[in-house]
Amino acid sequence: MTLRLRENYPVKGTLVLFILAGLSACILSLPALAASDRSPSDPAQQREAAGDMAGALALLQKQAGDGTPQSLKNFALFLDRHTEDGRREAFLKWAAVETDPEVRKLALKQAVLIDFMQGKDADLSRDLSEYRAAGGQDLQSPKRSANAQHYSTVSIPGPLSSFARMAALSPDAAPEDLLPALARNVVTNGYEASGNEALQQTEYLRLLVRYIGQARELQAMARNQKIVIPACDSEETGNLLKVLGYRMRGACGGDMVLETVNATRAFLTADSGFPLTQLEQDLRANHRFELPYAPTQVPVLYSAKYWIEAVNQNQADFLDAFLSDPSICRLYLGLSHLDRQTAAALREQASAAKLKIYAHVLDFFGSMFQIKDGVAVVPGSAKVWGAMVGVPPSNPGAFFAKLLATDDGWMASYFDVLSRIEGPTAAYLTQPDRMKRFYDALRGKITSPGPARPVFRSSTELTLLATSLRIDPDGQPHIPGNLEVWRNLFIHHPHGKYDGKLTRSAASWKNSDDVIEALFGLSRKSVENEPLKIFLALNDVDRGRAKPMSPELASRLVAGYRTFGAQYALFADAPALSEGSIEQYLDLCRQSKDMRDTLLRADDIGTLQALAGLWRILVLQDSIPAARQDASFTKLLAPFTHVKQEGDVLDAGRSGIDTLLAAAGKQPGSMRQEQIVELLVGKLRPANGNQPASPAEVLLRVFDAQLLVPLDSIFTIADRAGKEPIDPKTVKSLDEQISRLQETQSLRSSISAEERNTFAVGYWSDRHIDQEKKLNIDKLVKNTEKRDARDALEPFLRDSLVGLLYSYYAPPGAQLLLTNSSFVRSHDFIGPENAPAAWAPTEVAGTGWPESGGGRLVGSLISLPYAVAEAEQNFLTPKREQALIWADLVPQMIVDVTVNRWRNVTPEQIRWVGLHVARGESLIAASAFNSGVETAVLNSYRRFATPSRVEWLQDRLESGDFKTAIANVPTSALYALALDPKLANISPDIYLTEAAEIASQHDPSLSPQAIAHTFGTPKPTLTHSLQPGLLYLRIFPALMGYSSRILAESWESNNIYFAALADRTGIPVGELDSYVPEWNRAAIENIFATHLEDWPALLRSLHAVGTNIQQQHVLQANIRNSEN
Amino acid sequence: MKSFLHTIGLATMVAVAAGLWLKAQDQDQTTFHVKVDMVVLSFSVTDSHGKYVNGLKPKDFKVFEDEIPEKVATFTEGNHAPLQVLDSGETKPLHVASASNESGVGPAQDLRQDAAGTNVFVLFDTSNYMYRGFVYASDAIADFIRGLDRADSVAIYTYSRNLNRAVALNRDRTSAIAGLRRAVAGDDSALYNCLLLTLRDAAKVPGRKVVIVFSNGPDNASMVAPDDVRAVAEDEGIPIYVISTSEVNKDPISSTIFKRISTNTGGKSYFAKTWQKQVEAFESIREDLGNSYTITYYPQPNPNEGFRKIRVEMTSDTAKKYRIRARPGYRPQRGI
């Protein structure tokens, strides 16, 4: 892909060298590339900033014609930034005229790295020689060693594409990942318990086995690896059709069609993607039909024999043996997670038949096993681990084998969790005494069932505790409130006893270790672990506060957790809230329970929560400065304390809106709707070519589709009804919406009595909507009923405020919000009598009960972004025929861009991220040329990857396959590599130099916090907050109770990738709030994953979408270029 | 607020343009251009024996919207090319140009051929509910595609929990059948979600279009209600035909919904458990498509921004005994 270049350019001139003292104390001196040479007034810079890449390119190309180092450098850097073809040549031309030897080396080094990245060995050899001749010492010839492979191959019948379809495998998976993916599918979907508790094959596996039989029959028909049908009336035709389960209807000729005769076989034929239509066409035309049909060779760990022998049956074929034994599949999975050395050490300890007994533990908790210098790598003290396991880590094979077999997996799960954390938390938890003590608490007396027994890892709470535990500067864990608060919880347990032993021991607690020990003790339980949840939630509330919460507040939060705990996310989002404000909010929560009129209560709660939700958005967007957050929140809540009737709620709502506007620096009291919309999503931008709709347009479309009434209309009528004239247009707008609402509802009245009875569970009658439908606006305006207009209009105000939130969180491609015009109004703030929902998390209800009037949301608005995303996700359409929308992961990916809206992003931030991602790639490329760099980079990468993935990356680099290597490193890890201070002096390159120049300007928007805030993702489960951030965690596995939701929260690459993509494509930052949601949608629709932990599929999708966007962008630029 | 809405309204006019409007350019040529508010109405006329009545002319009908007489702009019988209806009630062939031509992008294009025929969207249930009859259903749909009029275009969509756009709208029967045969059996069924998405796609296509749903009936994953989907079809003028592989009495709820959706949009529903019945159902649909009439008109000023009732009336006394099947009305699109 390339922007079209117009002409060649001559070379001459010099470049000035700077010595920097900016980026970091680690960077002693770097040659400056003088990015500042291209000042904002530079015409090329201006065009680039405006998104006119073709124009900028043309100018730079023209300037490069003068041959000065400066212009040639500008041109090379431009091409490099936008990953254009010709950049290597541009760097060489620049180097050829560059007089500063250090700068020249950088230019030549870049050419070498580009050669390696593009796999151009011949150029690489040449450019490397030139670089070394110029004095470059840090790049040696890349190693080309093939590591001892532990793969052989096995044969599966027929083409891989058909097998992949039948086995539900992504065809994009790397060859060595196919059998692990198959193994996982067999383990999770292949068998089910039969009546006598023996395992029997599921329909999935039965079909797969049948397909394998059919494929073998077809393979037997093939000659020279081809199925050939010479003519329609040949004998082969009948034979083939018989295997396929079809027959000819009609004689050979143009009217003949193929039709099913054996449904079982025909299903396999269709489902495996056999080219039936081509066969039919050829038969009709009496053409020769040829189909390459050969077995596929697939990499298998070790050898087929190793696995066949372990099955302990008389199976001769690998595939038959493999599919017949789920435990051997599990062992395959487990061993595939290990690096070569560790796997070899384990295999030396035990046969496959013995290892498979603990295969489930190895699969779930073995991926962090590693041997270094002949010793097992352990988190914390080797001595303690030796004592706990009973074998010293210095005997690594035996150590890991024993670890797997101990306590039904609890010890392995503990090892796994501790291996994944680092920093102060790791230091605290791995302190020798604590490590043993906390494990004893976790293990308890009865170890069965172990955490690897269920379908998902049941060590969820343990993982969350270890990951989220916060260590204070004194090295002790942070205990919200004080020890007494937690002692009280365990002793008095307001909602019933948690654990008898813990209740007894709580009385003698002395320090924070005692609390943590109790939490470890609870974390093995899949139920009754409420104290742990409370602890984590309060920790997150306390995390950003200038002053830790008082014991009094902590006690109140603990006591109210079961009813109001979901609301604590609001406090975690805004650490500036005072304790008084939090107490005030909790008072209102409690007060609302006393309202007997459910309609009034729902309106009161809905209005209050909507205002709090709007306040939350403005806080997260920094529209309300920290200094005004607390006061505005208090002021917003105050009027709700006096609510007696609907009119009071309306007044409180109006006051709340004005408070929000004032806090955000707007003019309260007028043009409220327009101002609030502008605050939320910015100004409306007119449609521009293929550019996606602006966020304001999307919001207003949804707002109107939900038949909502602008705030100002409501307030105008409420104030003037029966008193003074009202603009007829205002009255008409409300009247129209009511008419449309009545009409929409009348559609639903077509439900028959039978239907209603049948769907009683899903059907509800909504009194809130009914009362709105009954409003006679004419009578209200004329005040003929002597009714307070404020009372009548409050339900509409509630809907409009709630609707603003729904509209704000509407993802691209939203259909429900545009089609079900009662969706907002249907929000159930009360819930059923036995399960009050007013302050509970937002839930999606009504899915699959379509005749009930469609789905709706129930509960508070606290987790509305996720719930809206969950409701809308099934309207996304996968681009691949077999793929499905990943139900537990996709809502979080949507929330990544509906909470973090890409507003107020600066060009400098985009460049900063783009630069660092490029630096990350450059570091990995440089690893192939220098063992010192390799060690440092891989050590840094270990923070994000399991040992086997680090080894895999190393293998790819040593085989020279950079493209495959880099395509499997998450973008957030690339970014983090570039930020790692330990790598700041490693392998200087053009990116490091430019980053140092930018950093020297001390732009606060480029601080780690600012970048994390701008391009991070919200993590409502991990942090109990919607505050976007970057945690740089290892990607989590699927966990019981959360499926892949926590995996999705630990996936931080999308926004970082989009920022780097924006940098490459040059799309103006002011338009990114339109583009990025669409990119995100495309990336979701393009995912083709095989299983719930298949995060490489996310990365593949991102890269595919990014490539496509770049191509489109280049195409458009070229069109403009041609036109000019 | 007003300025917001005004700007969006303009944007909508340009971006959501769908349908065709008539513009006399000179004496000999008439050109279609895209406009937003044109109403497309398909209907069939049958006699007292249920047989299709063919050969009717524009002057044989009167069209009312909320009892306001409407002036018919174009008239199409079956899969013939559309005709312009003159003030006199006479007709003449059309010259059709794409909307993009007017904006200066892309070459002028004679769409007379494109304007003929029906755009058929087939929505095929590949959920677990269809597992047993999957291949037979596929055969029946393939036969239907083969038998479509040459002027018709066809798109193949499949669904289970999500929609899959297997083959985009085109006239290549081979690619349509190949796409159909690439369908993969899925899991849950979100019929109404996916029907909605299909209607949204169909609404973007100018000319006459229908959606044919081939389903076992149950829906266990949709978030959207059938009646909301039905409303979209009504408003867009897209008849929905449903072929259910379930017996009418076996799943009365689905049957009732299917009947309501199809009737209110001007389509039909069939309950065809056996392959033979399915073939017959498709034959009936094909016949319906070939024997229906499609007219377009620009609504006369009408203050009603809600549901507008459409009534088609035969003009001659002898024809008044004929039965006309058409959608009952629509809601006009709003510029925001």
Architecture blueprint of SSEs:
The complex is a heterodimer of chains A (1124) and B (336).
Chain A: H1 43-49, H2 53-64, H3 69-81, H4 87-97, H5 101-118, H6 121-133, E1 151-156, H7 160-167, H8 175-189, E2 191-193, E3 199-201, H9 203-221, E4 226-229, H10 235-244, E5 246-249, E6 257-260, H11 263-271, H12 276-284, E7 289-292, E8 296-301, H13 304-311, H14 318-324, H15 326-336, H16 340-349, H17 352-355, H18 359-365, E9 371-372, E10 375-376, H19 382-389, H20 396-405, H21 410-420, H22 423-429, H23 432-443, H24 460-468, H25 483-492, H26 500-506, H27 512-523, H28 530-543, H29 551-559, H30 561-564, H31 568-573, H32 579-592, H33 598-620, H34 626-637, H35 646-663, H36 672-681, H37 695-705, H38 711-720, H39 728-748, H40 753-758, H41 767-773, H42 777-782, H43 789-808, H44 816-819, E11 843-845, E12 856-858, H45 864-872, H46 890-898, H47 907-927, H48 931-941, H49 947-958, H50 962-967, H51 971-979, H52 990-999, H53 1008-1015, E13 1017-1019, E14 1025-1029, H54 1045-1050, H55 1053-1065, H56 1072-1085, H57 1095-1123
Chain B: H1 2-15, E1 21-24, E2 30-33, E3 39-46, E4 61-65, E5 68-70, E6 72-77, E7 83-85, E8 91-93, E9 95-96, H2 99-102, H3 112-115, E10 119-125, H4 134-146, E11 153-159, E12 163-170, H5 173-181, H6 191-203, E13 209-215, H7 226-236, E14 240-244, H8 252-265, E15 269-271, H9 275-290, E16 292-297, E17 308-314, E18 323-326, E19 329-330
Parallel strand pairs in B: 2-9, 10-11, 10-13, 13-14, 14-15
Antiparallel strand pairs in B: 1-2, 3-16, 3-18, 4-5, 4-17, 6-7, 6-16, 7-8, 11-12, 17-19
Helix pairs in contact in B: 4-5, 4-9, 6-7, 7-8
